[in-house]
Design a protein that fits this description.
By secondary structure, this protein is mainly beta. The chain is built from four helices and 28 strands. A hairpin with a 6-residue loop joins strand 7 and strand 8.
């Protein structure tokens, strides 16, 4: 073989190698290999391990992160390891709102011919709970004048101030009482609470308004004319450790805010939602029941949950409140129903002092009380 022929063979081989490199196909894979959240988001998680998914299976299409509270979660930046050359939309590391449900990510292969869609969900731990949908109401058994609510298997655990309003306006139709059922629920029916004028009776006794309310406990009408704060016997026996309360609400404030002396004040009415878990006996074994005057201050209180504010909204809006408190729960007392729980809703936050706005209206539905499972105790 001549030198010239060798040169041509070398040049031909070099050409073939160059062609192979240029024609090498781009990556067709479009997978998420791992996912994680930035370290500064750690306070929103129970443990660091919950902040990452180190390995995503080839067939996995749903990625789930567990957080302490969904409603408190800020927009978060989620990061991904992808197969070489692949791209993702929304952009890798961009902040997204995961509070309102799954966020969909689309991964596109390097060659642009293939895609995979993933859904990323942030959720709270699933805990056992009691759900109240307020579908069952009926007129009271005494007079048939105002509405009451019952729960399947739990009886009449809910109370209202409707009986007190009967004393002020006995001629009112059942639909014109402060607390009534409504068909305009988040799902099915709901409870509608409205602050009403108490008429001439209210002017006589300086109790000008009656706020719509609903609470776990009983209403004792014997104190209506003497000490109205004692009419609300707040609490039912509860043998679980409550952790949080969630639900849906709508709220509209009335126009004119007045005090019990009928003075118009430069204030805007507010609704309120709160829950109290407390020891139902004292050190001597005497029964303890909380009322309107000490429901948030009594020394027997061990857990308290409260909505800091309830902005006005004409759309059903989710609320969530967590029980706070450091006192150790006595499990023997708990088992023997030594604790009570009350959950309170009112269309006027200061309605127990007869301050508020006529017309303020609060709707409540799908209320859920979560509690610790037996495995957690």
């Amino acid at each position: 073989m001549t030198i010239n022929n060798c040169k041509w063979i070398v040049l031909a081989m070099a050409f073939l190698l160059t062609s192979c490199i240029k024609e090498e196909s781009k990556n067709m894979e479009c997978d998420i290999l791992s996912a994680w959240v930035d370290e500064e988001a750690e306070p929103y998680f129970y443990k660091p391990a919950d902040m990452k998914i180190p390995t995503v299976g080839w067939s996995d299409r749903e990625l789930t992160f567990t957080v302490r509270s969904l409603s408190a979660l800020p927009d978060l930046a989620l990061h991904f390891t992808l197969t070489p050359g692949a791209t993702i939309e929304p952009a890798n590391g961009s902040k997204q709102n995961f509070r309102n449900g799954p966020v969909r990510y689309v991964v596109t292969s390097e060659d642009g011919q293939w895609t995979k869609t993933y859904e990323v969900t942030f959720r709270q731990p699933v805990q056992p709970s009691y759900l109240y949908s307020f579908e069952s109401s009926q007129l009271d058994g005494k007079r048939g004048k105002y509405y009451e609510w019952t729960e399947s298997g739990q009886g009449g655990i809910w109370a209202t101030g409707n009986e007190g309003y009967y004393i002020a306006k006995s001629a009112a139709a059942a639909s014109d009482y402060p607390t009534v059922p409504s068909d305009d629920g988040y799902e099915g029916k709901c409870v509608k609470m409205t602050t009403y004028d108490t008429g001439s009776w209210g002017r006589t006794f300086k109790k000008p308004i009656a706020a719509g309310n609903l609470f776990l406990g009983k209403f004792n009408s014997a104190h209506v004319l003497t000490n109205t704060l004692l009419t609300t016997e707040m609490g039912i026996a509860f043998d679980k450790i409550p952790t949080k309360v969630t639900g849906y609400y709508k709220y509209k404030s009335g126009e004119k805010f007045t005090d019990r002396n009928f003075n118009v004040l430069d204030r805007k009415d507010e609704a309120c939602i709160y829950a109290v878990f407390y020891r139902n006996t004292d050190a001597a074994g005497n029964s303890v029941m909380l009322h309107g005057d000490d429901v948030k201050t009594h020394p027997n209180i061990v857990r308290l949950a409260e909505m800091a504010s309830l902005p006005e909204t004409s759309e059903w809006t989710r609320f969530e409140m967590t029980f706070e408190g450091t006192e150790t729960i006595d499990l023997a007392r708990l088992k023997n129903q030594g604790y009570n729980l009350t959950l309170v809703f009112s269309s006027s936050k200061s309605g127990d002092s007869f301050e508020g706005s006529v017309g303020s209206t609060l709707y409540i539905d799908e209320v859920e009380i979560s509690y610790q499972s037996e495995e957690e105790l």
